[in-house]
């Protein structure tokens, strides 16, 4: 199975204040760098086949810190970039909360389309396509990390959970939190969501057990019966 580590970028000065969107030039602040370093240290023993990031600076910087000490380059992918908020980009969140569209985003997000921006359903579609593409490229035994944005990660988790997009606001994804999904041919399995400090032993590669022959199984069972 392919294991995907979903990481939201670390804190920036505008986090929780404005809707940053695709505004260029927004970098991790000192808090965000500390968060990324702490996650880097937690994941140090986990082998990674790739580090993929939204092309925005805050994600590339977070991924770059996670990659310190590894022979990996951060690979930008626009398909996991932030929601294109259009005319809402850069606006104060308190002011946006008074807009009629805000309630639609909270209650019926699959119907929400940002003015001169994109629909949330399109964001989920492009992000899921990106994950499936990278899974196929990297193979069934790979563990890889994707650094993106809160709404994008929530949309990916909703897809992995088999939830309608209209329920994705029930998922919380904090800055620099870790969520993990394992993908098989039949279905994804969500291992953790919004983890801010748990152990990572379960993410280390597991040794494959050799299959014993039917005769060995029968013999072993008979010999141990009594």
Tell me what the structure shows.
This protein has one domain (2-223): Rossmann fold (3-Layer(aba) Sandwich), CATH 3.40.50. It has seven helices and six strands. The chain has helices spanning 30-42, 57-66, 93-96, 100-107, 120-138, 150-161, 214-223; strands at 2-8, 51-53, 74-76, 143-148, 178-183, 188-195. The protein has a six-stranded mixed β-sheet, sandwiched between helices. The relative contact order is 0.20.
What distinguishing features does this structure have?
226 residues; alpha/beta; Rossmann fold; six-stranded mixed sheet
CATH H level: which superfamily? Phosphoglycerate mutase-like
Number of domains: 1
Compute the average pLDDT. Answer: 92
Strand-pairing-aware structural class? alpha/beta
> Which radius of gyration do the C-alpha atoms yield?
20 Å
The total count of strands amounts to: 6
Major β-sheet strand ordering: 3-2-4-1-5-6
CATH class group: Alpha Beta
Strand content: 5-15%
- SSE string: EHEHEHHHEHEEH
CATH topology: Rossmann fold
Helix content: 25-40%
How many helical stretches? 7
Distance between the termini: 39 Å
Unreliable segments (pLDDT under 50, ≥5 consecutive)? 212-226
Q: Tell me, what's the shape?
A: globular
Biggest sheet layout: 6 strands, mixed
**How does CATH name the architecture?**
3-Layer(aba) Sandwich
């Amino acid at each position: 199975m392919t294991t995907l580590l979903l990481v939201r970028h670390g804190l920036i000065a505008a986090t929780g204040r404005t809707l940053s969107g695709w505004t260029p030039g927004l970098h991790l602040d000192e808090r965000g760098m500390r968060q990324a370093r702490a996650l880097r240290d937690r994941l140090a023993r986990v082998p990674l086949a790739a580090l993929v990031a939204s092309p925005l600076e805050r994600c590339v910087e977070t991924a770059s810190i996670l990659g310190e000490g590894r022979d990996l380059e951060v690979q930008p992918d626009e398909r996991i970039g932030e929601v294109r908020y259009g005319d809402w980009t850069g606006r104060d969140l308190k002011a946006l909360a008074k807009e009629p569209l805000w309630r639609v985003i909270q209650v019926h997000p699959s119907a929400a389309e940002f003015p001169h921006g994109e629909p949330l359903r399109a964001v989920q579609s492009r992000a899921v396509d990106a994950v499936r593409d990278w899974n196929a490229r990297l193979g069934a035994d790979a563990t890889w990390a994707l650094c993106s944005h809160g709404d994008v990660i929530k949309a990916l988790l909703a897809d992995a959970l088999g939830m309608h997009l209209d329920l994705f606001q029930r998922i919380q994804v904090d800055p620099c939190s870790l969520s993990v999904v394992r993908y098989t041919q039949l279905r994804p399995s969500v291992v953790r969501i919004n983890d801010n400090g748990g152990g990572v032993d379960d993410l280390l590669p597991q040794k494959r057990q050799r299959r014993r022959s039917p005769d060995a199984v029968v013999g072993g069972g008979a010999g141990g019966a009594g």
